Amino acid sequence: MGSYGRLAARALDTDVPVMVKLAELSKSAKDAVPLGQLRQENKLSKSSVMVTAGSNQGFLNLVLSLCDVADSVVLFAPYFFNAYMSFKMTGINNILVGPSDPTTLLPDAEWLENTLSDTKPVPKLVSIVNPGNPSGICIPEPLLKRISEICRRAGSWLVVDNAYEYFVYDGCEHSCVEGSHVVNLFSFSKAYGMMGWRVGYIAYSLEAEGLLTQLLKVQDNVAICTSMISQHVALYCLESGREWVQSKVKSLERNKELLRDALLPLGEEAVKGGEGAIYLWAKLPETCPDDIEVVYWFARRHGLLLLPGSACGTSGYVRITFGMLREEECEVAAKRLKNGVEELIRDGMVE
């Protein structure tokens, strides 16, 4: 089956908006994101882009373009909560949640291969985040390629969220995969601090027959386009280049170590992540398994905001962010975190 047959019926059955047809006639619209980055840095030589109001909107565009409500989809726990919400809010309830390796937090490729082989009809879409949110891990290129090949053979779309592509540490490297069944998502929100400006983009394969037309239908009924001023700011950021971003990312390494040290009372094996993105992933003490209650307790008693693991399909864990803080602020946060962890282990959630 070609890629056209794997598009969503709800998109295929919708006429192309008249304004999109007029834009095609005029040929005046141009991509706002240069393809140089895709081809030089990400090695995506057979892809083009659609600019979206952030990569979250890009993901929603893809869900509406590729999936129907009766389809099944695949995520790996711990998963990005917004991906799960996008499926649920568009009526897709058959969400197959796969395991990650308990030691490395890497997606279980063998489970994926068996699931795509045994599930009929085959799941329409597999979604992964690299580097991981909330896991903070980097998927090695061989595993990424294996996951892509498993999806290709099964006839499933693979959607890879690369929002934290520049956020890698300790010698880890980020890589991308390409194919007619692969769609990559990118964002300006993290690397360039443009969260409120809402600029991201979809990198879709030029070999994916009919996909762009369906994406345009959705785009014309959601955001139409990212604001022009945001696109101009994004272009200016690209001119600053990867080196500017990497200098900023390097400054986060001290934050990461401060928070990792604060979590040591939980045990070294209880703390994962930190290879990529801006997150550590920590297992709570067995005596305090209710991660939501623990998060509320940390906020009330210690003035810290953590993310409950249950929001990402894995209860009993919390996500800790080491981004968005200056080093001196992170030192204060680390002291609060250590005090809270020690108290939690020693006394439980005392008030």
Describe the structure.
The protein has twelve helices and eleven strands. A seven-stranded mixed sheet has the order 1-7-6-5-4-2-3, with helices on both faces. The protein has helices at about 10, 20-25, 35-40, 55-65, 80-90, 110-120, 140-155, 210-220, 230-250, 250-260, 290-300, 325-345; strands at about 45-50, 70-75, 95-100, 125-130, 155-160, 180-185, 200-205, 270-275, 280-285, 305-310, 315-320. Helix 10 (about 250-260) runs parallel beside helix 12 (about 325-345). Strand 8 and strand 9 (about 280-285) form a beta hairpin. By secondary structure, the chain is of the alpha/beta class.
Low-confidence runs: 25-34
Summarize the helix and strand pattern as letters: HHHEHEHEHEHEEEHHHEEHEEH
Beta fraction:
15-25%
Strand order of the largest sheet: 1-7-6-5-4-2-3
C-alpha Rg, in Å? Answer: 21 Å
Which secondary-structure class do the elements indicate? alpha/beta
- The total count of helices amounts to 12
Average pLDDT taken over every residue: 90
In whole angstroms, how far apart are the ends? 60 Å
Characterize the largest beta sheet: strand count, sense, and whether it forms a barrel.
Answer: 7 strands, mixed
Described by the principal axes of the CA atoms, the overall outline is globular
What is the number of strand segments? 11
Percent in helix:
40-55%
Layout of secondary structure:
Layout: H1 9-12, H2 18-26, H3 36-40, E1 47-52, H4 55-66, E2 72-76, H5 81-89, E3 94-98, H6 109-118, E4 125-129, H7 141-154, E5 157-161, E6 182-187, E7 200-205, H8 211-222, H9 228-250, H10 252-262, E8 271-273, E9 279-283, H11 291-302, E10 307-308, E11 317-321, H12 327-347
Parallel strand pairs: 2-3, 2-4, 4-5, 5-6
Antiparallel strand pairs: 1-7, 6-7, 8-9, 9-11, 10-11
Helix pairs in contact: 4-5, 4-8, 6-7, 10-12
InterPro entries: Aminotransferase_I/II_large, AspAT/PAT-like, NHTrfase_class1_PyrdxlP-BS, PyrdxlP-dep_Trfase, PyrdxlP-dep_Trfase_major
Domain Aminotransferase class I/classII large: 43-337
Keywords: Aminotransferase, Pyridoxal phosphate, Transferase
